[in-house]
Amino acid sequence: MNPLAVIGRVVISALGETGRLSVFTWRGLSHVVRPPFYWRLIAQQMLRIGYFSLPVVALTAFFTGGVLALQIYHGSDQFNSESIVATIVALGITRELGPVLGGLMVAGRASAAIAAELGTMRVTEQIDALTTLATNPFKYLVVPRIIAAMVTLPLLVFVGDVLGIFGGFVVGTQSLDFNAGVYIKTTSDFLELEDITSGMIKSAVFGLIIAMLGCYHGFNSKGGAQGVGRATTNAVVASSILILASNYVMTSLFFSS
Amino acid sequence: MSSSIPTKDAKIELTGIEKRFGKKTVLNGLSLTVPKGKSLVVIGGSGSGKSVMLKCILGLIKPEKGRIRVDGKNMLKATTQEREKVLTKFGMLFQNAALFDSLAVWENVAFGLIQGRNMKRAEAKEIAIEKLGRVGLTPDVGELYPAELSGGMQKRVGLARAIATDPEIIFFDEPTTGLDPIMADVINNLIVDSVRDLGATALSITHDMASARKIADYIAMIYKGEIIWAGPRDEIDRSGNPYVDQFINGRADGPIKMDVLKP
In A46-142, which residue ranges form alpha helices assigned H by DSSP? Predict the structure, then answer.
């Protein structure tokens, strides 16, 4: 076997997949701005993607905030700089951990569900049936999920930010003997609006990634139950990796100056 | 190919359709005419290209070559909007019904009315219940979900959905596959009645000869991606074509060879 041929095949396959995903994304986004809009489906998807993800995002954020407070405290006491705990918890949660962990949690939950649902619809010809009923599957299936994910992810992350900071506050005041008033004042002094908005912008992009990859893999699944399972796994893995990679790019853009 | 299907007043015209998947040629210059207001059944074995042909007409698959005209409009050169407009003339019964399992039965039947024609839900529901009655299902079935129905009932709901918008053209994809003989005959009768009442043009694909004989005005046989015989239903028994004879009589021996590994 020629190793160059193997590398070539992998590269061509990856480029082909990237091209297909780009075309799919372009088609999806182009339909987002063109009527008709299925408001009932958009609301339904907001409920499924956003509201039902609230418990998992809230718990993740709360415990992450608590753990962060503990770790920073034990790391910083060697330099007698325990006072930075509140600041780092607030900045860490709002800038990075809130959006990224929230995105990953929703990717695991919603991207998998989208891929499984659309994949099943594909292999049982329900997507073909939509076309025969003069309904564009992109508008009916993809657009509501994109809009719902891009709107609800920032809201989820905002709730996560509040609960993450609260988790740090609870651990700080209950276990580490911080004064509650001082902790709150330090947090509010150092936290700026752009820390929160940057996280929410990131999470809107993560929402697009989650919905788009779930829809793409579901739409293109084939081969029955096994194909649907493969689509689900690929959607979660691909969206998680893309969330982490895009987070690096966005952090570089937002905070490089 | 011998064909005695009239080409004048054609509702659907396929000319020289070629479709390949990788190295496999599925449709090999297929040409076929469906006359307006008539029921044409395409028979052929598994893998002969029947379903691909239907999907090409609907625009779900794009052929490499050929021309597909519906009411004289070339579907392969139509824009998305033009194709969506033409598709409002269509109704289709899928092999496994392809009902939307997230929607109640009445919503499935009313789907084309609500989404395709912007009809109010209450009005569409009334029509859906009426169409369910046409296929022998009571209004209470409308409130159930597809997973709660038997295969025969799903097929009937699929038929109700296909006729809900009073389409000009109805496609039936293996309408009796997987049904017991009595339910298959019930579905065949419903198809005949629905097509007659609507005055629709029907194109069906099947390998069930009893079904083909019952619902067809014309029959065409597809083999290796080509139409090898087409003509009036009553002439199929004297087609003089050995492939057709072997298929309609269900004989293992003949010019059509099955790839079966013998021990």
Answer: 54-76, 85-91, 98-106, 112-123, 126-132, 137
Which residues in chain B have Cβ-Cβ distances shorter than 8 Å to A134?
84-85, 87-88, 90, 112, 115-116
Q: Is B176 helix (H, G, I), strand (E, B) or coil?
A: coil
List, for residues A82-122, the tens digit of each pLDDT value: 778 999 999 999 999 999 999 999 999 999 999 999 999 99
Q: Is residue A257 part of a domain?
A: no
**Cα A195-A192-A251 angle, rounded to 5 deg:** 20
Distance from CA of A151 to the nearest CA of B (A): 23
Q: Tell me how far apart the alpha carbons of residues A56 and B202 are, in angstroms, rounded to a whole number.
A: 52
Find the distance separating the first CA and the last CA of chain A, reported in whole Å: 49
Distance from CA of A117 to the nearest CA of B (A): 10
Query: What's the pLDDT at B170?
Result: 93
Can you give the residue range of the structural domain that contains A136? 43-250
Q: Choose from B115, B145, B205 for mutation: most chain A CBs within 10 A.
A: B115
Answer yes or no: do A124 and B96 touch at CB < 8 A: yes
List of chain B residues whose C-beta atoms are within 8 Å of the C-beta of residue A133: 87, 111-112, 115-116, 161
pLDDT tens digits, residue range A29-42?
998 888 888 999 99
Q: Which of A117, A134, A140 sits opposite B87 (nearest CB)?
A: A134
In a domain, A145, yes or no: yes
Through-space distance between the first and last CA atoms of chain B, rounded to whole angstroms: 36
**A39-76 pLDDT tens trace:** 999 999 999 999 999 999 999 999 999 999 999 998 88
Q: Compute the average pLDDT of residues A158-180.
A: 94
CB A133 to CB B84 under 8 A? Answer: no
Chain A residues within 8 A of B87 when measuring between CB atoms: 131-134
Closest Cα in chain A, distance from residue B162 (Å): 9
Determine the distance in angstroms separating the CA of A36 from the nearest CA of chain B, rounded to an integer: 10
What is the tally of structural domains in chain A? 1
Residues A125, A123: Cα–Cα separation, whole Å: 5
Q: How many CA atoms lie within 13 A of B212 on its CB side?
A: 24
In a domain? residue A37: no
Q: Scan for tokens 């994109």, then name that residue.
A: A146
In a domain, A21, yes or no: no
The closest of A132, A158, A152, A144 to A214, measured between CA atoms, is: A144
Whether B39 contacts B202, CB under 8 Å: yes
